[in-house]
Predict the structure.
Amino acid sequence: MFEIGDKIVYPVHGAGIIEGIEEREILGELRRYYIMKMPLDDMKVMIPFDGMDQVGIREVITEDEVEMVFAVLSAKISIMSENWNKRYRANIDRIKTGDIFEVAEVVRDLTIKDREKTLSTGERKIMQNAKQVLLSELVLATEKHRQELDDAIEQCIG
């Protein structure tokens, strides 16, 4: 269980800080929720206590792991399918894992692919979403500003 003030990652949505725990009645059923504040856009997300293990919620990475994320970002592009539909589905699945290193690979691979050949609208949206998820966690892990981290990501990718 998490506590108020904990920094957590909600796969696909990104990282945030637990601001509160509330009970709400939804569809006639009383349920408990974590209220998580996202650092990048001041959005709040309600995360139900039920099924948290299946969703893959975890703590934000450590400073040491931040260095590993930047190592992933500076590595060579992964082998990707030339079929955009297969590539699209594979990248969605990688983001859904909630694994920061998988998300970093998606950001790196799609950024490089976009520089070589313009991405489709769908893939560009995935790239932007993955970058938001990545940045939200890096902001909380390092306590650096978003723009500073965005610039560092761009530098790593080359």
Strands lie at 7-10, 14-26, 29-37, 44-48, 58-59. The chain is about 50% helix and 20% strand. The chain has a mean pLDDT of 93. The two ends are 40 Å apart (CA to CA).
